[in-house]
Structure formats: C-alpha cells, structure tokens
Write a structure and sequence with these properties.
This protein has three helices and twelve strands, in the order E-H-E-E-E-E-E-H-E-E-E-H-E-E-E. The protein is of the alpha+beta class and about 180 residues long. A five-stranded mixed beta sheet has the order 9-8-12-11-10. A four-stranded antiparallel beta sheet has the order 2-5-1-6.
C-alpha cells in the first residue's frame, strides 16, 4: 500500500528522469523496490474538446519525470539503485552527486507530492472582466501566472525545475460566486 508523505515537510524529495511514457511504471517500480517511499509522475486534468464535445482528461504534465518523497526516518535505502530500473535514465543529482532536491526544486517537488501528483482543476469566478481564482493549483501558484485564457478556461503558469523555466497551461472551471 502506498503512503502519502507528511505534508509538514518531514520528508526529503528527489526525482528520476525516465523514458517518456513509462512514468507510471517507474513510479510503481520505485515504490515496490523501496517500501515506504512515495513516487509519482506529475499529472494534470485538462479540458478537451473532440467534435464539439467537451470533457476532462488526465495528461502527464512533465514527461519523463517521477518525483519521490523519502521519509527522514527511513533506513537502508540507496536511491542510486533506481538507475538499475528499466526505463530509468538517471537519478537527478546536483554537481556533487547529492540526490536531495534543494530550494525551488524542493518546494516544487513538495507541492507535487502534497497534491499526490495530480494537478486538478482550479475554481474561479468572473469578477467583471477579470477571472478571480478561489482555490486549486492556479490559486496556489497565483504569483506565477503569466496569462489567463477565459474562453479556454486555462491559465499559463511559469515555474522553474531542474534549472529550466517551464511554462504550462493549467485548467480552471468557473463557479458561481457565493454570497455571504
């Protein structure tokens, strides 16, 4: 049984780079090889329209990456052994070979793990001609929003991971504003 890590920051975080399309397999293999660790690819819910029929679909947000939460109290784990798993190219490390993510990379990994790897829909409402975010991943990353597409119900956010700035569209849905 997989356990979701403590969101209070009592874990360390790392990431493996793997073959695109095998993220779910790699996450499962890591949790099987290392009981007590939690591994997940980053998935997102996106709006989709096929032949005029609108629906929601889950997609891999960062192809080739699997994030891992490692409890501080776990012993006997050599994460470098992840490199022997099928479809894993390498464990991400810094220039000195340390696997623990630091600073913004660590904060991003914690955010991903705390969301169980799934970046769902944000809730928003129209305030005049502006979109006001109420909850969800866009609200959590509000300072990183580059652009809002009201018609497509998506927000473009920018974040940095693995030394690169990345921009992705995250979905939101409109809701009625509650009156107090």
């Amino acid at each position: 049984m997989e356990s979701i890590p403590d969101s209070a920051g009592a874990d360390r975080y790392t990431c493996v780079f793997c073959k695109t399309g095998s993220e779910q397999f790699v996450a499962h293999a890591i949790m099987t090889l290392f009981p007590g660790l939690y591994a997940t690819p980053v998935r997102q819910i996106k709006h989709q329209s096929i032949n005029g029929i609108k629906s929601l679909k889950e997609h891999i947000l960062l192809p080739g990456y699997v994030f891992i939460s490692v409890p501080f109290d776990i012993t006997g784990v050599n994460l470098y052994d992840c490199g022997w798993l099928p479809d894993v190219y390498r464990l991400l490390t810094d220039g000195e070979g340390h696997w623990e993510l630091q600073d913004k990379d660590e904060a991003f990994a914690r955010w991903i793990i705390n969301n169980k790897g799934l970046i769902g829909l944000s809730q928003a409402y129209m305030a005049g001609d502006k979109v006001q975010l109420l909850s969800g991943p866009l609200k959590e990353r509000e300072g990183n929003i580059i652009k809002i597409d009201r018609r497509g119900r998506n927000g473009l956010i920018e974040f940095t991971f693995d030394g690169r700035a990345r921009r992705v569209w995250l979905a939101f849905e409109f809701t009625e504003m509650r009156r107090l």
